[in-house]
Amino acid sequence: MTDIEYVRAADQGSALALVAEDPDAVFLAGGTTELDLALKDQVVHPSRFVDIGRLPLRGVTRDGDRLRVAALTTMEELAADPTVRERLPFVREALLLGASTQLRNMATIGGNLLQRTRCRYFRDPDVGACNKRDPGSGCAAIEGVARMHAILGAGPSCIALHASDLCVPLVAMDAEVELLDADGTRTVPLTEFYRTPGDRPDVENVLRHGELVTHVQVPLLPDGARSGYLKVRDRTSYEFATTSAGAAVTVEDGTITWAKLGLGGVGTMPWRAWEAESVLVGAPASERTFRAAAEAAIRDPFTVPGTAFKVELAKRTIVRILRTVTS
From which residue to which does any coiled coil extend (predicted)? Predict the structure, then answer.
């Protein structure tokens, strides 16, 4: 293994410069994913870790009807925030179901957004066919064991899954990501931050080299809204989602007047179910409506023998969470 240089950044300017000057340098925050990939799995090969852990990028502030979450805020800190508890309960649920207490105290919100896939083929350097690791080499998951892989946004080049729980309610709530580099700051909607594999599975998001995630802005639920996060998994202890759904709705006189729906465990990126929301708004809060929304959400899935079961399971997950938040 090639030696990796470690540098602790003194401030944001030096952190940006240290990464920008080296095409193989990366930022290091909580390290719960990056260290595994580089040191344990050895499937990524950074030349330099730039530790940003001491930069002033921690904390949660409220600005009107939005929260602004600094990127180095830990999952545990965000889950404990009183505004999240009261006005974004399904974000809190996703955080608590997303990792063990030990990991939640280490893992950062920025890192959670940028976590890499848990695809066993990507994380095994002995597997040669992985377009995400080695573009043009193929996708071993297509014909391999693929139970924990994607059916939405997937295709012949890659079916690797985005495993974040937190991103499911964040993408449903139209969260935005603040990015910083030497040229300044830009803000990108989370729904536009990720990229589907297409013919470049190795390019997972719109982040430019040397660009740093500094904050995440999350709108609060409107008054009267109910929300919930449902995670279906093989065991109730720490485990990644087989399917999941985060939903938020308002209901007046039995009619759904506002709806947001995000899906996990099924997409190559955190999946916003726009079509399902269109079905829900203006419709009665009924089993028939919920099933129609589920059918709209899981439209034209790309499946292989190992993932075909997820089509119906994802639909049932959607129906169940909608039933829960409207009852």
Answer: none
Spatial separation of the C-alpha atoms in residues 156 and 64, rounded to whole Å: 45
Residue with tokens 């269109």: 278
pLDDT (tens, 9 = 90+) of the chain, 327 residues, equals 468 999 999 999 999 999 999 999 999 998 888 888 999 899 999 999 999 999 999 999 999 999 999 999 999 999 999 999 999 999 999 999 999 999 999 999 999 999 999 999 999 999 999 999 999 999 999 999 999 999 999 999 999 999 999 999 999 999 999 999 999 999 999 999 999 999 999 999 999 999 999 999 999 999 999 999 999 998 877 789 999 999 999 999 999 999 999 999 999 999 999 999 999 999 999 999 999 999 999 999 999 999 999 999 999 999 999 999 999
Where residue 23 sits, what CATH number does that domain have? 3.30.43.10
Structural domains in the chain (count):
2
Its domain, for residue 267, covers 226-326
> How many residues can be counted in the chain?
327
